[in-house]
Structure formats: structure tokens, C-alpha cells
Amino acid sequence: MISRRLLPASVLLPLLLGACSASQGTTEEQASGPAEKDPPGVAQALSLGGQLEEDSESSAYDRAIGCAVAFRVTAVAIAPLTSGSNSREVRALEAGARAFARRARSAEGAQGRDVPEDIDAQVAESDEGDKADQARKTLACARLLE
Which of 33, 69, 89, 102 has most Cβ atoms within 10 angstroms of its Cβ? Predict the structure, then answer.
């Protein structure tokens, strides 16, 4: 299991906040629009401290793969914001991805499946996706490592 020292919130949170805000593209003009009441559940969806949404039909294997993917995508996204792919933050995120890959290998339903191949396939699919969602998922998954 990964110790708290590898994924310090004080290191990851500012970077993930930067990644979230950079990918959202929200300007002050957009944010200062007319005050409207958000529909129920929006605050939870936007919360960085939210819980990992678990699909009742997903297996422990699928959840572990999803977390490994989130860590890898976030590591790639923040590398340019740090000192590169060998930065302390990126190494910590990669350690999180490895921890979830190990969980996937030992999870029920992993028999006959290729963990690295499944992770790579989902990373390729998520390249087009919302980086802010991946960063939020990474934070939720990091809570599972504590």
C-alpha cells in the first residue's frame, strides 16, 4: 500500500486545481453571469473532495483499472505544469497508478485479463475526455489509498 508521504495532498491539490481550472476554460465573465440556482447534485459533482462514483455493475477489477487510468491521465496532464515527467508530483501519481494496477491484478474478475493492456486501452480512450473529470476521479481514488 502507498504511504501518505507518496501522495501528499499539499502537493497534488494545487496541481490538480490548476489542471482542473486550465481544462475548464472558464473566464471571469462566464463565472460572473446571472445568479442561478444549480440543480440538485451539482455541488457534489463539482466537489474536489467528492466520493468515487461506483457503478453497482462494475467489478473491483474495473474500479481499480479506472483509478489506475485516472492517475496516469492526470500524471500526463500535470507533467507540463511541473518540472516534467520526472517531477516529484508525476512520480507520486505514477506510484498511485501502479498501486491500482496491483489491486486490479489481485481483484476478482482479473483472471485471463491483461492489466497493462486494459489500462493502456482506457488511457487512449480518455485522451479525448475531460481532464477535470479525470483529476476529480484521481482525488477520489487517492482517498482509497489512505
Answer: 69
Dist CA 22 CA 128 (whole Å): 15
For residue 69, give Cα distances in angstroms to 26, 37, 73, 120, 133: 25, 34, 6, 8, 12
- Report domain extents, the chain: 60-146
- Three-state secondary structure along 35-85? CCCCCCCHHHHHCCCCCCCCCCCCCHHHHHHHHHHHHHHHHHHHHHHCCCC
pTM of the model: 0.66
